[in-house]
């Protein structure tokens, strides 16, 4: 069994900081669960282009207000933003390219498949690098 507390993650290398967000990686690939589990804080007033072409992600909002908007290949929004507030879950089951906007600080619980190594930040295309071959999806 793995037991961790957020207070121990906060000052550790499991806390990863990008311009628009901080991600606290509670479970990562080396934990052998086949997925990674993060608490992510999206900074207020930011907009982030995200396109997880190599991963699936599910996101559950537990705090804050914001929105997501799907975008086309040119990065243009579809004009139909989906409000985010506590209790909303969205799952990027089609590697959906999107904009994530935080009106206030968002606290999101995020699950990635394949699991992240733990040190990733977004590339210029809004993606994380693909998992290595040895990132087996089979649980230990
Ligand atoms: C919602 C989202 O994908 N935000 C970017 C950070 C990501 N959740 C992560 O690495 O924890």
Describe this structure in words.
This protein has a domain at 26-113: Jelly Rolls, CATH 2.60.120. It is mainly beta and 140 residues long. The chain is globular, with a radius of gyration of 15 Å. It has one helix at residues 6-9; strands spanning 15-17, 21-27, 36-42, 47-50, 56-63, 66-70, 82-84, 89-92, 98-102, 106-113. Helix content is 3%, strand content 39%.
Structural class: mainly beta
β-strand number: 10
Task: Summarize the main sheet.
Answer: 6 strands, antiparallel
- At CATH's second level, what is the architecture of the domain at 26-113? Sandwich
CATH class (first level) name of the domain at 26-113: Mainly Beta
Order of helices and strands: HEEEEEEEEEE
Can you give the helix content as a percent range? under 10%
Discrete helix count: 1
CATH topology of the domain at 26-113: Jelly Rolls
**What is the CA-based Rg, rounded?**
15 Å
- SS strand fraction: 35-45%
CATH homologous superfamily grouping of the domain at 26-113: Jelly Rolls
* Low-confidence runs: 133-140
Shape: globular
Attribute tags:
140 residues, single chain, binds (2~{S})-4-acetamido-2-azanyl-butanoic acid, mainly beta, six-stranded antiparallel sheet, disordered C terminus
Please give the structural blueprint.
Elements (H helix, E strand, L loop, with lengths): L5 H4 L5 E3 L3 E7 L8 E7 L4 E4 L5 E8 L2 E5 L11 E3 L4 E4 L5 E5 L3 E8 L27
Antiparallel strand pairs: 1-2, 2-3, 3-10, 4-9, 5-8, 5-10, 6-7, 6-9
The structure holds (2~{S})-4-acetamido-2-azanyl-butanoic acid.
(2~{S})-4-acetamido-2-azanyl-butanoic acid binds next to strand 2, strand 3, strand 5 and strand 10.
